[in-house]
Write a structure and sequence with these properties.
The protein contains 11 helices and 8 strands. It is of the alpha/beta class and about 290 residues long. The chain has an 8-stranded parallel β-barrel with strand order 1-2-3-4-5-6-7-8, surrounded by 4 helices. The longest helix has 17 residues.
């Protein structure tokens, strides 16, 4: 009788798996509500950011945060400055999130041109003193710039804001991390993170990574979100008609970041932050494969 041979599953790339071990991921309240059991798809104890886009009901935000905490995750709600009506509302939101089990908050400008209330940016939110009870605070980073902040395409104002926040963290002992917009080339991300260190901005960086998605979907979101020069990676791929229907995965990008981190103990990028542009299950399946879960 011939012996049956079994092929073992391919081993995960060790540096890549290590880099993704503490990856965070983003969900919207309506996405979470459509999934009966989040523990079936999200890594146990994961840091899960809850996106607050324009039109989101604050009550749904609070319910999602509380559900994630009950399920053993570490929820981090977005607080978009330009969507906060007033100081009293900010205090109510922060109190509700803490009561629901939030382990921190991501402070953002808010993605709308005109503020709906008293706040224009995250620095004004920090200045209220209302966020001191949050165990962690997260702020936005823009490795490819942000034309809403620097219309000339540079990074002077973006860096000035990050310097202000680093000083705030130093004088208040706030535990603060940077979470960036997604991009598609590793070396410019590495160069940007090292520029932060050269400027004395030493907050840990969670680098934004676009989860697997069809190329057309990826291009749509990249243009909508103002992705900069690294958009050329997608444009080059789009010229290859044989790859148009193949989902774009961030494995090469994250692999390059992981390799850089594995060889540099002072590497400034601490972890990845996954934007599930092609769907939450596609993103978590990819994450599980790369981590060897």
């Amino acid at each position: 009788m011939a012996l049956m041979q079994f092929r073992s599953a391919p081993r995960a790339n060790a540096p890549l798996a290590a880099f993704l071990r503490d990856a965070s991921i983003e969900v919207m309240p309506r996405t979470a509500a459509s999934i009966p059991d989040l523990t079936a798809i999200l890594p146990a104890g994961a840091l899960v950011f809850v996106a607050h886009i324009d039109g989101t009901d604050p009550a749904r935000m609070q319910e999602t945060v509380a559900r994630l905490a009950r399920d053993g995750f570490r929820p981090v709600p977005h607080i978009p400055a330009r969507l906060v009506p007033d100081r009293a509302t900010l205090a109510e939101w922060v109190s509700a999130y803490r009561a629901g089990g939030a382990c921190g908050a991501l402070l953002l400008g808010g993605g709308v041109a005109t503020p709906r209330g008293a706040f224009r940016d995250s620095m004004q939110l920090l200045d209220t003193g209302l966020l001191g009870d949050m165990p962690r605070l997260f702020i936005a980073g823009h490795p490819e710039g942000n034309r809403d902040i620097d219309p000339d395409g540079g990074e002077a104002e973006v860096m000035r804001a990050l310097r202000w926040k680093a000083d705030f963290a130093a004088r208040t002992d706030a535990r603060m991390q940077i979470v960036t917009q997604f991009a598609f080339e590793a070396q410019p991300l590495i160069d940007w993170a090292r520029r932060l260190r050269a400027l004395g901005i030493d907050m840990p960086v969670r680098i934004g990574v676009a989860g697997p998605a069809r190329l057309q979907t990826m291009l749509k979101f990249a243009i909508m979100c103002g992705v900069g020069p690294s958009l050329r990676v997608l444009q080059r791929r789009a010229r290859d008609v044989t790859r148009l229907l193949t989902p774009f995965e961030p494995t090469d990008l994250v692999g390059a970041l992981a390799a850089a981190k594995a060889t540099d103990p002072a590497f400034p990028i601490a972890a990845a932050h996954i934007f599930p542009l092609g769907g939450i299950t596609e993103a978590t399946d990819w994450l599980a494969r790369q981590r060897g879960d």
